[in-house]
Specification:
Layout lengths: L1 H48 L3 H4 L6 H6 L1
Length: 69
């Protein structure tokens, strides 16, 4: 009888772990979707302007701008 109870306990532990991982992944899916959308918008901005995104947001000076100063 004791071994049967241990088997049930181990099975329930596995099911609990699967449930926890599943809920965690459902939480991460929208976050990864948002990161992917932001990355895509950054790449589109780079392709349209022809400049790196760091230059577009003003974190890094463009080579042409640096030579004028």
């Amino acid at each position: 009888m004791g071994q049967h109870n241990d088997t049930v306990k181990h099975g329930m532990d596995v099911l609990a772990a699967i449930a926890a991982i599943s809920s965690f992944l459902q939480l991460l899916t929208p976050i990864f979707g948002l990161i992917g959308a932001v990355w895509t918008l950054m790449r589109i901005a780079e392709m349209v302007s022809g400049k790196p995104f760091a230059v577009l947001i003003g974190r890094k000076k463009d080579d042409a701008d640096a030579k004028q100063e």
